[in-house]
Automatic annotation (TrEMBL):
SUPFAM superfamilies named among the record's database cross-references: Radical SAM enzymes (SSF102114)
UniProt cross-references to Gene3D superfamilies, sorted A to Z: Aldolase class I
Lineage, uppermost ranks: Archaea, Methanobacteriati, Methanobacteriota, Stenosarchaea group, Methanomicrobia
Pfam families according to UniProt: Radical_SAM, Zn_ribbon_HMPTM
Domain of life: Archaea
Organism: Methanosarcina barkeri MS
Protein name as it appears in the record: Molybdenum cofactor biosynthesis protein A
Residue ranges of domain Radical SAM core in the record: 85-303
């Protein structure tokens, strides 16, 4: 049993809560004096929970110059607060809450508020500057989202500005409707500097779309992919909203679809559904699915080709980043997120078969080795001889004979460790298919310890940086209301009224 802080899903009061093992699962339990006891699945496999827990790292957070002091306490101090332990690895900027669809599972509940939240260009630029000025490590990756970001006519100009401000990874999260309609628009996005399209993609048949989107959106996804292919937007990540009983039977087919389209698809990032926003809360117990469920289903649906042992938490990358940072003597974004927030692996095609990286790389041994030698590179002095010695040992952890014949994995890894540049990382990604899962939290399964290590943040017009799960569960409505066009209009009307009253009084 472990004691954590969570909240009441009814009144949002912070509660002392527990996570405990029951029938091979990790459960979360909390009791609100007013609204009673709530129990939910935290992780559906206790063994995988324990394995992932080994990869827990604590980051240094952000400078107090970039955030706010903690006063009320999590989850209300988001600013980002001084207790937060991880810098911004990926920033979300909602450029609008307008959308050209009305999906039943929208966690942002787009279009439902009755007002339009759409920061102007200068506000968005200021949000990006705030991210780039973050200390001790600036934010390098930004994703423009919403709503549907492509309904803004100035999205290409926003992307171009992001490139000018030094973001090395620029993404949009899109339903693909506008990309499917126009190759010219895809070309405009590419020309402006867009790197990656995060495309919602719920399955390979019409049924999941009818359930998740309200209509058969599969032809739109296929056309959007083709237009990306034709215009050279060749970094698309498929993003299935995963719901038990809706599309969990298609996870293997989704991965195979991605592999067949590897010229344009770089990965699949599964998102087990969070019961926030528009989704029917009454279906929570029937539709709840967790990362271990996905891992197990994918092993089953690929006939063991992608086993659970191939998956690692995102935080497993910390030894690699810390090593490269020490070699280059430059602070880099550390993936010190909570080990139970997400999972990832890389797979490769070899003679028509999908194989995970763990088939030919001793991942655990490699990470332990890097962790052991990193202290040698800290401090002053030349690292040339020490680096040569480390690189000499890298082949000991790799069996290239078991990997794809044209991969040259030793060369890819040693070049990245030596240089640590985005281009060297991209070379690895171009040879592989990334599989990921990120389970965002809702009010029922919320662990505030996870929030404090969150690395995916929202930037807002008031200068705050807010963790993903607290933004969507606690702050979104207030931010959108305060900075909505209707709110600004009401303020202007009120100011004019006061001015008139003051003149009349005078």
């Amino acid at each position: 049993m472990k004691h954590i802080k969570s909240v009441c899903p009814e009144c949002k009061k912070v509660l002392d809560s527990t996570i405990f093992e029951e029938n091979g699962k990790i459960m979360l339990k909390k009791t609100c004096p007013e609204h009673g006891t709530f129990t939910d699945v935290y992780w559906s496999d206790s063994k995988l929970y324990d394995r992932f827990r080994r990869y827990s790292y604590v980051g240094s957070g952000v400078s107090t110059n970039n955030g706010t002091l903690s006063s009320v306490g999590c989850p209300w101090d988001c600013g980002i607060c001084s207790k937060h332990k991880t810098g911004t690895l990926l920033a979300n900027i909602d450029v609008t809450n307008r959308c050209n669809l009305s999906c039943p599972v929208c966690f942002a509940n787009a279009k439902a508020s009755g007002f339009i939240y759409e920061p102007d260009f200068e506000q968005i630029r200021e949000m990006m500057l705030n991210l780039r000025n973050q200390e001790p490590v600036p934010c390098y990756a930004v994703q423009f989202a919403g709503g549907e970001p492509t309904v803004r006519e100035d999205l290409p100009e926003i992307i171009e500005t992001a490139q000018e401000l030094g973001f090395s990874q620029i993404q949009i999260a899109t339903n693909g409707v506008r990309l499917a309609k126009s190759q010219e628009y895809c070309e405009a996005l590419k020309t402006s500097g867009l790197h990656t399209v995060y495309l919602s993609f719920d399955g390979v048949s019409k049924e999941p779309y009818i359930e998740n989107r309200g209509f058969n959106a599969l032809p739109i996804k296929q056309k959007a992919l083709e237009n990306c292919r034709q215009t050279g937007l060749n970094s698309v990540v498929l993003v299935p909203t995963l719901i038990k009983g809706v599309n969990d039977h298609q996870v293997g087919d989704i991965v195979r679809f991605a592999a067949r389209n590897e010229d344009v698809v770089r990965g699949v990032n599964f998102q087990p559904v969070a019961f926030a926003g528009r989704i029917d809360q009454a279906m929570r117990k029937e539709q709840r699915i967790t990362i271990p469920d996905l891992v197990s289903l994918l092993e089953e649906q690929t006939e063991g080709d992608i086993p659970s042992s191939a998956w690692y938490p995102a935080s497993a990358a910390v030894p690699i980043i810390r090593f490269v940072s020490a070699v280059r003597k430059v602070p880099l974004p550390e993936f010190t997120i909570h080990p139970h927030c997400g999972a990832a692996t890389y797979i490769f095609e070899n003679e028509g078969k999908l194989i995970p990286i763990t088939d030919f790389v001793d991942v655990d041994g490699f990470l332990e080795f890097l962790e052991s030698v990193t202290p040698e590179f800290e401090g002053q002095g030349s690292n040339v001889k020490k680096l040569a010695k480390v690189l000499y040992h890298i082949p000991h952890y790799i069996d290239e004979a078991k990997g794809p014949k044209d991969l040259k994995i030793v060369s890819l890894i040693t070049n990245f460790l030596k240089n640590g540049t985005r281009e060297h990382a991209a070379q690895f990604h171009r040879k592989s298919l990334f599989l990921g899962a990120m389970h965002f939290q809702d009010l029922y399964n919320l662990d505030l310890g996870r929030v404090e290590q969150c690395g995916i943040h929202y930037a807002t017009p008031d200068g705050r940086i807010i963790p993903f799960c607290t933004y969507n569960n606690f702050h979104r409505e207030g931010v959108e209301a305060r900075y909505s066009k209707q709110y600004r209009k009401d303020i202007e009307v009120e100011k004019k009224t006061l001015d008139v009253q003051e003149r009349e009084a005078a």
